């Protein structure tokens, strides 16, 4: 049966998930189609909507004073714009054939079915909790949602001890280590890899390692947590690896996240290698004309490698929502893909990357050259000039830019945007050297650090072309 015909001419859009992608989609669809044409029903299982998950570490650390500062739009504001937003309600089943979803009230357990003409899945991601004893003990926290952040702050407020262990040293782990330092905790970071920030190559990750130790953070590398130990009261008291124990009054899991696609998987919707939903350029779920998906629950095309990736970032989620809402509303929009740009910081150290790491390039069969340069954020003679390290990867023979990583102080991180634009445009490192970037001594040296790296990369690519024929992809790896 045509569901819209059963209800009259008005169509119904059902949105599952009330944060960035879901509510951006709902809001954009509402802007394009009024309530007489399109009914919008949105389900959110938590207490909050349209908030900045990326801001949670800064709220926990005290840089952001109030939780409400992270909320862009409240449930009441969404409802005032003609969206039937149902909070504390979790969708537990999708009936694709019947075009309906089964929703459960989180507080009462009451269930009901809601039909749809068009469905948007924006179920986000969930923190990875290792399968080990004690992982769910009181005092152990994942940090993905505003509810998670509030739970952690509640624990910090009632915990007398001042010892914290962060498990994992990716973006979440590094940012939470800084937050806990700011709260006056003794922080130990236990990391499975040799260096923090696995999104960087190890030589650049080493710079982050040294900076974190300089801040008083104890870094433990090449160590995997095997269990969480608890006291007689059941509360966490330590984490254990094969070789050691690390006392803890609170534990934060910074291992990363996985797409929250259990609902989609049960409904038989297509998932990729990383567990995320697969969509077309319009963000429509592949093979399903009336279902869209966006945000942390989907996989996206990497424009540099040509492969699908899972990247959980609010920037992408909001763009996905805009694309979905436009298409649902009768317009046309696409999301072509990403180049993998991300920035972070630990206290005054700024960390940035875009494009491919060395191991990414090897995995897809690219041959490449790398250069690493040291420069400064401003003209060396200008007060406040700070050191900056830039690493650049360029494809052998063609000189196409493949990736850039930057570690430095003030003014370092956002320089990665130069490389992100160059990657999106498919530029070579030689073309980059002619970019007309802004210059004045308070802002950069006369040659911006990114362009210095590009010049070095040009020389390296030319030398490689003069010295060898290049050979087939997958041959001997390039020298540094």
Coarse morphology? globular
Structure annotation, total helices: 13
**Count of folded domains:** 3
The helicity comes to 25-40%
Task: List key phrases describing it.
single chain; 480 residues; alpha/beta; FAD/NAD(P)-binding domain; 3 domains; five-stranded parallel β-sheet; 25% strand; globular
Structure description:
The chain is α/β, with parallel strands linked by helices. The protein has 3 domains: 3-126 and 258-328, FAD/NAD(P)-binding domain (3-Layer(bba) Sandwich); 129-255, FAD/NAD(P)-binding domain; 342-466, FAD/NAD(P)-binding domain. The chain is 26% helix and 25% strand. It has helices spanning 3-7, 20-32, 56-60, 75-80, 146-158, 171-182, 202-214, 262-266, 314-328, 358-363, 416-424, 429-432, 449-467; strands at 11-16, 38-44, 84-87, 89-95, 100-105, 111-115, 118-121, 125-127, 140-142, 163-167, 186-190, 218-220, 227-230, 236-240, 245-247, 250-253, 257-259, 291-293, 300-301, 308-309, 342-346, 349-355, 368-376, 387-395, 401-408. Strands 3-2-1-7-18 form a 5-stranded parallel beta sheet. A 5-stranded parallel beta sheet has the order 9-16-10-11-12. A 5-stranded antiparallel beta sheet has the order 21-22-25-24-23, sandwiched between helices. Helix 2 (20-32) links the parallel strand 1 (11-16) and strand 2. Helix 2 packs parallel to helix 9. The longest helix is centred in the C-terminal third of the chain and has 19 residues, at 449-467. The protein is globular. Mean pLDDT is 93; it is low at 469-480.
């Amino acid at each position: 049966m045509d569901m819209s015909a059963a209800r009259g001419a008005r169509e119904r859009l059902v949105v599952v998930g009330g944060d960035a992608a879901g509510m951006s989609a709902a809001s954009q669809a509402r802007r394009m189609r009024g309530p007489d044409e399109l009914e919008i029903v949105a389900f959110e299982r938590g207490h909050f909507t349209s908030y900045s998950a990326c801001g949670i570490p800064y709220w926990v650390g005290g840089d952001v004073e109030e939780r409400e500062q992270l909320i862009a739009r409240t449930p009441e504001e969404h409802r005032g714009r003609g969206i039937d937003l149902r909070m504390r309600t979790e969708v537990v089943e999708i009936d694709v054939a019947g075009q309906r979803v089964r929703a459960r009230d989180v507080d009462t357990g009451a269930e009901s079915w809601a039909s749809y003409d068009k469905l948007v899945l924006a179920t986000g991601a969930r923190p990875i909790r290792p399968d080990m004893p004690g992982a769910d003990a009181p005092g152990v926290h994942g940090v993905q949602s505003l509810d998670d952040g509030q739970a952690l702050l509640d624990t910090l407020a009632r915990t007398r001890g001042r010892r914290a262990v962060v498990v994992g040293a990716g973006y979440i782990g590094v940012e939470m280590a800084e937050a806990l330092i700011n709260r006056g905790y003794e922080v130990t970071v236990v990391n499975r890899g040799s260096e923090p920030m696995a999104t960087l190559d190890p030589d650049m990750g080493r710079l982050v390692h040294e900076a974190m130790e300089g801040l008083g953070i104890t870094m433990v590398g090449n160590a995997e947590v095997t269990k969480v130990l608890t006291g007689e009261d059941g509360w966490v008291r330590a984490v254990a690896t094969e070789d050691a124990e690390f006392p803890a009054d609170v534990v934060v899991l910074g291992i990363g996240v996985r797409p929250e696609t259990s609902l989609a998987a049960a409904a038989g919707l297509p998932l990729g290698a990383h567990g995320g939903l697969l969509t077309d350029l319009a963000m429509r779920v592949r093979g399903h004309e009336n279902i869209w998906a966006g945000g942390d629950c989907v996989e996206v095309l990497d424009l540099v490698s040509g492969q699908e990736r899972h990247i959980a970032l609010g920037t992408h989620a909001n763009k996905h929502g805009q694309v979905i809402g436009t298409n649902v509303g009768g317009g046309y929009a696409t999301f072509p893909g990403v180049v993998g740009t991300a920035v972070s910081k630990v206290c005054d150290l700024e960390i940035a990357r875009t494009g491919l790491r060395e191991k990414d390039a090897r995995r897809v069969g690219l041959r490449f050259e790398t250069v690493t340069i040291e420069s400064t954020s401003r003209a060396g003679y200008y007060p406040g000039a700070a050191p900056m390290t830039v690493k650049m990867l360029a494809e052998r023979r063609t000189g196409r830019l493949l990736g850039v990583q930057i570690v430095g102080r003030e003014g370092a991180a956002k320089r990665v945007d130069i490389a992100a634009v160059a990657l999106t445009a498919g530029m070579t490192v030689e073309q980059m050297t002619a970019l007309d970037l802004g210059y004045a001594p308070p802002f950069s040296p006369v040659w911006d650090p990114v362009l210095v790296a590009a010049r070095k990369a040009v020389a390296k690519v030319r030398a490689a072309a003069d010295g060898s024929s290049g050979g087939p992809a997958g041959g001997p790896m390039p020298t540094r």
